């Protein structure tokens, strides 16, 4: 397979929801690429559209316009996920999967662990042979670290970490290539969070999965990602390799976001940039830099036209008129 | 990563049972539900073996023994034509139970499907189904049933259909309501993400999770179906006299209630006992079907 | 610590929830002290008993099933557990105020925010309605909400603003002790930064003591003086923030610090504490942490560890560590 070609190409993706007060621009003209086996971190605050974007990528939601091009299995050419028919989508589901945020509500409380993990195999008629399916389920439980004795337990009897392991096993069942991880550890305590992060990491090494890791927790995103995209009000404002992003944030929003992370160390607290006010409404936003209203550097030009995401340094994209010229 | 499991041994492996046995096993733990089940079983037994059990014929008139209070010969007394009330109750169980269960069955299946479809798909389909239901709901249930039987002609089957159809909107509303709340849960999206079809999602994920209110409504529904059928029989559109039926017995005894209360007392008790038993069973079933409440 | 400087002294507090399926040992023999003007970070994972302890101080444990089995909660030298319900009502809000985790549900949706603050003031102070509303406006300005918005309903505010309103209510009667239960967990990072900045400012202004319940060691590093680490209903390590962060001693604390991904360093695999929190209905004997502890010795499963002062003002409940540091 040609490693230089991107595995996923997202082009001008838009997702609008119609509400009573007008069109809600959840994802507004987003373009990026992901390489095979890479982890792209997607950070932003609640309502910035990161979860909607994740769902559009695997077509759990239909996009309003734009393309999500997924490389074909042979490495030749691309399939536009947003355009395929329902039948083709059923086949595609085996290649693209999702792990959900809330391990408390993403599992049907009436199904046992066994039934939950068997579901993807049954609905896609993977096995005719019961013994083969049993073997596969045991194998999956072992992969994600669930003991065999738990197979007849119900989700409510298990702790959050184990439930999230069930969710991961379900998404692995069909041998996917690409997994959207939608805040997979946000509902977990730090110790359990570390266990699940390690699991996701070792799975990626073993099976060469491509991840999109959605989270609002910047330390976690930094830990898992190769590259990080920062979203604000439906748009990507900065996209870069993770170390570069943390060392040299260019967008004023990224700078504020990074400075706001509480660090569990003494005397390292960088100077906090406190943003004024709240995130404005994503309904019918004006054609301007979405961040201009809260930005301390905003000039007249920021209020006219959306600044495009441009490559400021090799591999470091930013959507700000004054990138590199601040301070 | 398997250390997690080694260190915490408190969760022992649970035995694997079929889903049906699992529910039965949990049901057996509730004494009230078992009491309800026993009563229902007894009634069904009486209904099936009425010929063997009943001491007299249910329709044979005996004008020498009219309005007799309970005695050794007639345990529950006789009615205005001297017919044995116990025998009529036993035979009546046939009709009443049939009407109750089948009418609710009709209502549940039709209303449940309509409600599930309407709640799951929403939009114009939901709107049109629910507006029709609203129209049906605005007509009094009994009146609707009368209209249907009048159109179809009086017979046991038509009676059940009429009573069933008149209850459809209630079930459609309840099912739609619980489907709406379940539909927004994340595990529905999770099921779609692994490629489940709409039908599977409705049958496997949504309906089982919206069971609780439906079961409660159904057990109450059997009771009201029995009474509804009785009402229709009373005005001559249901079971034709002299065939025994609890509701008809109840209304037949009404005019003698001051002098011979036993004529209404026993059919009334029979209906009450059935309803009580069904309610106990329904509550037990609801709990047994919910894995969160077991252990 | 001089006695008159001691504001809160919790001795051997045990709180159980008696449920049908067994007794939940939420808090087991907890000891904790807090000086006047100090702020304490109360850290632990879900189910460690942090919130139960806070509700215990407020005497707001839902009963049944909750029950304070034993212990003393000395507040200004008086045992709160011996107070009558009427006396407690006068203390709650006036002397001890609490901020809850979810600002969305802790405000009354059908009452304007100034009325909610005024209600609190009038409960504890003998002032006219007019005066109370005026003070409510002052409080809102103090927490950074413009006076024009005082007649708005809670749903007209964003999450961060609502939490400001909640803080204004809590501080309205100038309490001596403020208990904040995960006050920023429901908020976004940049909004969290705003609220933390505000709390830091108000802490100085009001010179109240504070207990900040959180699972985030970063927040504690930012605004607390003292830290208590809680595990399975007990405090396992307690000390001055500087001493504890520079040199965490209890094996659980060390594990907790390590499992947080670092934002400056790369690690391939996060060091994890093996296993799970014990079932609070069935706590291990001896030290509750011993089944997961890499340093555990034979005695750990037998004896409940005592808190020992291993560094000045730094207490640890671990006999193994104590011996290692030559203090056994």
Describe this structure in words.
The complex is a heterotrimer of chains A (327), B (295) and C (328). By secondary structure, chain A is an alpha/beta fold. In chain A, 28% of the residues lie in helices and 23% in strands. Chain B has one domain: MetI-like fold. Chain B has helices at 3-7, 19-27, 31-48, 50-53, 85-121, 123-138, 141-152, 156-183, 186-193, 198-209, 211-234, 246-253, 262-288. The longest helix of chain B has 37 residues, at 85-121. Chain B is globular, with a radius of gyration of 23 Å. The model of chain B is unreliable at 1-11 (pLDDT under 50). Chain C is of the alpha/beta class and 328 residues long. Chain C has a single domain, classed as P-loop containing nucleotide triphosphate hydrolases (Rossmann fold). Helix content of chain C is 30%, strand content 24%. In chain C, a hairpin with a 2-residue loop joins strand 11 (308-311) and strand 12 (314-316). In chain C, helix 4 (129-142) packs across helix 5. Chain C starts with 5 loop residues before the first strand and ends with a helix. At the A-C interface, helix 6, helix 7 and helix 9 of A face helix 6, helix 7, helix 8 and helix 9 of C.
How would you describe this structure in keywords?
heterotrimer, A: 327 residues, alpha/beta, Rossmann fold, eight-stranded mixed β-sheet, four-stranded antiparallel β-sheet, 9 helices, C: 328 residues, 10 helices, 12 strands, 30% helix, globular
Give a quick precis of the structure.
The complex is a heterotrimer of chains A (327), B (295) and C (328). With 327 residues, chain A is α/β, with parallel strands linked by helices.
Q: How do the helices and strands line up, and which of them pair or pack?
A:
The complex is a heterotrimer of chains A (327), B (295) and C (328).
Chain A: E1 8-19, E2 22-34, E3 39-43, H1 50-57, E4 65-71, E5 78-80, H2 86-92, E6 96-99, H3 113-123, H4 130-144, H5 160-172, E7 178-182, H6 190-207, E8 210-215, H7 218-224, E9 227-232, E10 235-241, H8 242-247, H9 252-259, E11 310-313, E12 316-318
Parallel strand pairs in A: 3-8, 3-9, 6-7, 7-8
Antiparallel strand pairs in A: 1-2, 1-4, 4-5, 9-10, 10-12, 11-12
Chain B: H1 3-7, H2 19-27, H3 31-48, H4 50-53, H5 85-121, H6 123-138, H7 141-152, H8 156-183, H9 186-193, H10 198-209, H11 211-234, H12 246-253, H13 262-288
Chain C: E1 6-19, E2 22-35, E3 39-43, H1 50-57, E4 66-75, E5 78-79, H2 85-91, E6 96-99, H3 113-124, H4 129-142, H5 159-171, E7 177-181, H6 189-206, E8 209-214, H7 217-223, E9 226-231, E10 234-240, H8 241-246, H9 251-258, E11 308-311, E12 314-316, H10 319-324
Parallel strand pairs in C: 3-8, 3-9, 6-7, 7-8
Antiparallel strand pairs in C: 1-2, 1-4, 4-5, 9-10, 10-12, 11-12
Helix pairs in contact in C: 3-4, 3-5, 4-5, 5-6
């Amino acid at each position: 397979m040609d490693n230089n070609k991107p595995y996923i190409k997202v082009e001008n993706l838009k997702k609008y929801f119609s509400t009573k007060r007008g069109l809600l621009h959840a994802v507004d003209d987003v373009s990026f690429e992901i390489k095979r086996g890479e982890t792209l971190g997607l950070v932003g605050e609640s309502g910035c559209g990161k979860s909607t974007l994740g769902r559009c990528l695997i077509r759990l939601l239909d996009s309003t316009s734009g393309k999500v091009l997924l490389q074909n299995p042979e490495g030749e050419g691309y399939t536009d996920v947003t355009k395929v028919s329902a039948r083709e989508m059923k086949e595609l589901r085996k290649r693209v999967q999702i792990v959900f945020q809330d391990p408390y509500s993403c599992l049907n409380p009436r199904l046992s662990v066994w039934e939950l993990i068997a579901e993807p195999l049954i609905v896609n008629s993977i096995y005719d042979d019961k013994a083969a399916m049993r073997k596969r389920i045991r194998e999956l439980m072992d992969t994600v670290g669930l003991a065999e004795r738990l197979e007849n337990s119900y989700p409510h009897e298990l702790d959050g970490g184990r439930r999230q392991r069930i969710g991961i096993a379900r998404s692995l069942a069909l041998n996917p290539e690409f997994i959207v991880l939608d805040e997979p550890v946000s509902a977990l305590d730090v110790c359990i969070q570390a266990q699940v992060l390690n699991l996701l990491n070792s799975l990626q090494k073993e099976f060469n999965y491509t991840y999109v890791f959605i989270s609002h927790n910047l330390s976690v995103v930094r830990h898992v990602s190769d590259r990080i995209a920062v979203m604000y009000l439906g748009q990507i404002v900065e996209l870069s390799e993770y170390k570069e992003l943390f060392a040299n944030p260019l967008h004023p929003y990224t700078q504020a976001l990074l400075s706001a992370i509480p660090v569990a160390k003494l005397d390292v607290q960088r100077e906090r940039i406190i943003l004024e006010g709240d995130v404005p409404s994503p309904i019918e936003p004006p054609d301007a830099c979405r961040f201009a209203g809260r930005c301390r550097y905003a000039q007249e030009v920021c209020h006219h036209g959306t600044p495009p995401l441009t490559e400021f340094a090799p591999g470091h994209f930013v959507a700000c008129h004054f990138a590199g010229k601040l301070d | 990563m398997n250390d997690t499991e080694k260190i915490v041994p408190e969760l022992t492996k649970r035995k694997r049972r079929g889903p049906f046995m699992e529910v039965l096993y949990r049901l057996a733990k509730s004494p009230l539900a078992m009491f309800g089940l026993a009563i229902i079983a007894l009634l069904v037994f009486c209904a099936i073996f009425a010929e063997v059990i009943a001491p007299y014929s249910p329709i044979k008139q005996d004008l020498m023994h009219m309005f007799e209070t309970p005695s050794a010969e007639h345990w529950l007394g006789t009615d205005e034509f001297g017919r044995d009330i116990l025998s009529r109750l036993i035979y009546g169980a046939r009709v009443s139970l049939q009407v109750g269960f089948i009418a609710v069955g009709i209502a549940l299946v039709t209303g449940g499907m309509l409600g599930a479809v309407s709640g799951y798909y929403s939009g114009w389909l939901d709107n049109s189904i629910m507006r029709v239901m609203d129209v049906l709901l605005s007509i009094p249930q009994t009146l609707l049933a009368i209209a249907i039987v009048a159109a179809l002609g009086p017979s046991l089957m038509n009676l059940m259909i009429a009573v069933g159809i008149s209850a459809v909107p209630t079930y459609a509303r309840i099912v739609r309501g619980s489907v709406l709340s379940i539909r927004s849960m994340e595990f529905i999206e999770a099921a779609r993400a692994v490629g489940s079809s709409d039908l599977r999602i409705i049958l496997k994920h949504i309906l089982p999770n919206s069971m609780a209110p439906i079961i409660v409504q159904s057990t109450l529904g059997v009771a009201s179906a029995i009474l509804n059928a009785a009402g229709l029989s009373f005005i001559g559109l249901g079971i034709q006299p002299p065939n025994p039926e609890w509701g008809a017995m109840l209304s037949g005894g009404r005019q003698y209630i001051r002098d011979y209360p036993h004529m209404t007392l026993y059919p009334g008790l029979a209906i009450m006992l059935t309803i009580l038993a069904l309610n106990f069973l329904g509550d037990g079933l609801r709990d047994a079907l919910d894995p969160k409440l077991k252990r | 610590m001089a006695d008159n400087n001691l504001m809160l002294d919790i001795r051997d507090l045990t709180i159980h929830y008696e449920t049908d399926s067994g007794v939940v040992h939420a808090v087991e023999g907890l000891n904790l002290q807090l000086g006047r003007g100090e702020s304490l970070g109360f850290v632990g994972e879900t189910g460690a008993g942090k919130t139960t302890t806070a509700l215990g101080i407020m005497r707001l444990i839902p009963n049944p099933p909750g029950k304070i089995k034993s212990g003393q909660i000395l507040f200004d030298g008086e045992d709160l557990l011996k107070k009558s319900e009427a006396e407690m009502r006068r203390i709650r809000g006036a002397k001890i105020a609490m901020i809850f985790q979810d600002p969305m549900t802790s405000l009354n949706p059908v009452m304007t925010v100034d009325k909610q603050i005024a209600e609190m003031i009038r409960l504890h102070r003998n002032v006219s309605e007019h005066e109370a509303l005026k003070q409510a406006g002052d409080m809102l300005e103090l927490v950074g909400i413009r006076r024009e918005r005082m007649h708005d309903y809670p749903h007209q505010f964003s999450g961060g603003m609502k939490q400001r309103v909640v803080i204004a209510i809590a501080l309205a009667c100038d309490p001596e002790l403020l208990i904040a239960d995960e006050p920023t967990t429901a908020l976004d990072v940049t909004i969290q930064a705003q609220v933390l900045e505000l709390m830091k400012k108000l802490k100085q202004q009001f010179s109240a003591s504070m207990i900040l319940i959180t699972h985030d060691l970063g927040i504690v590093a930012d605004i607390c003086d003292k830290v208590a680490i809680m595990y399975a209903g007990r405090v396992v390590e307690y000390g001055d923030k500087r001493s504890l962060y520079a040199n965490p001693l209890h094996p659980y604390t060390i594990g907790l610090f390590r499992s947080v991904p670092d934002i400056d360093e790369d690690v391939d695999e996060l060091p994890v504490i093996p296993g799970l929190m014990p079932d609070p209905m069935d706590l291990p004997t001896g030290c509750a942490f011993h089944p997961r502890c890499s340093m555990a010795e034979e005695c750990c499963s037998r004896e409940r560890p005592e808190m020992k002062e291993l560094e000045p003002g730094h207490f640890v409940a671990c006999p193994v560590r104590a011996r290692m540091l030559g203090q056994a």
